[in-house]
Amino acid sequence: MLLVSLFFYFKTSGVFVLLLFFTICSDYQWGKLIHRSKSQVARKTFLSISIIFNLSLLCYFKYSYFFHESINDITGSDSVFFNHFTHFSNTFFGTAFSVDKLLLPVGVSFFTFQSMSYVIDMYRKNVLPVENIFDYGFFVCFFPHLVAGPIVKAHDFLHQIYQPYKLEKKEFGLALFWILNGFSKKIIADYIAVNYIDRIFDNPTFYSGVEAVFGIFGYSLQIYMDFSGYTDMAIGIALLLGYRLKTNFLSPYKATSASEFWKRWHISLSSWLQEYLYFPLGGNRKGTIGSYVALTIISVFMILISGKIWLTFWLIGLAILLIILFLVFPKVKQTINTNINLMVTMLLGGLWHGSSWLFLIWGGLNGLGLMIHKFWKDYSPFKNSNGRIIRFILMLITLTFISFTRIFFRSQNLETVNNIFYRIGNYFGLDLIFDIIAGYKWVFLIMLIGYIIHWIPEGLKEKYRNWFSSQHYIVMGLLTILVVFCMYQFMSGEMQPFIYFQF
């Protein structure tokens, strides 16, 4: 299975399989050293080396080209970026990649975080060491979740490697259901993207504000269908092979607050950031040196992104203001530290997706949403209300907030963001709404059905899953043929890559 997974990654990423192999060998050895060491100082040293190594590789491939260009902009130099990894590949493997560009290995953010979880869990003594490097390699590069998640933690997966293979009829039915469910989501995501959403975001000045709003809510459905579709298929394939991956999405658009949304969306990343970043920073309890170091790094990143020296003085002024608040109002220190930890976690979550203002703003807006909800929930007149109407209104408000933050996530540059908001504010075109709906009736119908299915109570969905998995193999086979045939009717001429492959 390890060779199959490595071959799968080789087919998607070519020579970058060496990077994956190097990560496996490195963290396996650091894990062994941590387990064998009796000295706490030595254990911390080995852990630090492993984390620095992993983050250095991640930063090199995701951010070095960006840093180089930013330094050129700030200093006015015209130095040329040189990709040493590409040069190595061209020299020893005969590839012909450009050495002045940086290619991003598929899934590097996923397998780096996953490998780090093993070393950290080993340090915390949450897991026992794997028996050999082949088992560890299998944990890191198990092909269903390798390139786009879900991110699997060591303490959730390693014990499954040593359990005998077992697949009952019901599990086979559930696995088939998840695969078909994911496949259907992907086809729907491609259809609404190609036939509407991509057009809006590629040329927003060609469309009215109301069309842009439809595109914004459509993109929320698209990215959910696309990403959760992949993870559904990953869960199904893994289950067929005898492994159980945790749910990565829990009907996120049923959330009534930003806090609840992040408990339902990309759960594996949210829980990873919470367990390995937010809690170590102090969580809700306190601030740590790590909080302020991370905040300093993000501030430097912001200065490099903007290329504006004045931002340096603005951030220094903000730091001085925080120090004054700590001294004058010591009781608010915990509240401020909690919000700093929240914001740092979300900003780093944004930077995990890529090195640009857009991802940083997207992460910052979500951090701001979490902070506002944390304050508001204690004073909200609806905090004890379980009424369906109130819940539905809060659900729509949350969906609207999340969808509008995604303008920054989806847009290629800030100009696109500005154009979208300008069209909404100045050329909304509400009088055109019926013509727009008529022109894109099939796209909007599919979007509406997609949201309605998403909002179906979880109990009904579970009953349907159990009904499907309890059917005879012949019935499941016929239903599979029916689903594939129906989805084929919506299939785009060219399948779009999964959105999260780029991360």
Overall description:
The protein has helices at residues 2-13, 17-36, 40-75, 84-93, 108-124, 133-141, 143-146, 154-161, 169-202, 209-240, 258-264, 267-281, 289-306, 309-328, 333-353, 357-376, 388-410, 414-426, 433-439, 441-454, 458-469, 473-490. It is mainly α and 503 residues long. It has 3 domains: 2-161, no CATH class; 167-257 and 385-503, no CATH class; 283-376, no CATH class. α12 crosses α15 and α16 packs antiparallel against α17.
**Overall tally of structural domains:** 3
Total DSSP E strands: 0
For the record, give the distance between the C-alpha atoms at the N and C termini, rounded to a whole number: 24 Å
Helix content: over 70%
The secondary-structure element order is HHHHHHHHHHHHHHHHHHHHHH
Shape: globular
Give the rounded overall mean pLDDT: 82
**How many helices does DSSP assign?**
22
- Poorly predicted ranges (pLDDT <50, ≥5 residues)? none
Largest sheet: none
Radius of gyration from CA coordinates: 24 Å
Quote the beta fraction: under 5%
Secondary-structure class:
mainly alpha
Main attributes?
503 residues, mainly alpha, 3 domains
What secondary-structure arrangement, pairings included, does this model have?
Layout: H1 2-13, H2 17-36, H3 40-75, H4 84-93, H5 108-124, H6 133-141, H7 143-146, H8 154-161, H9 169-202, H10 209-240, H11 258-264, H12 267-281, H13 289-306, H14 309-328, H15 333-353, H16 357-376, H17 388-410, H18 414-426, H19 433-439, H20 441-454, H21 458-469, H22 473-490
Helix pairs in contact: 1-6, 2-3, 2-5, 2-6, 3-5, 9-10, 9-20, 9-21, 9-22, 10-17, 10-18, 12-15, 13-14, 13-15, 15-16, 16-17
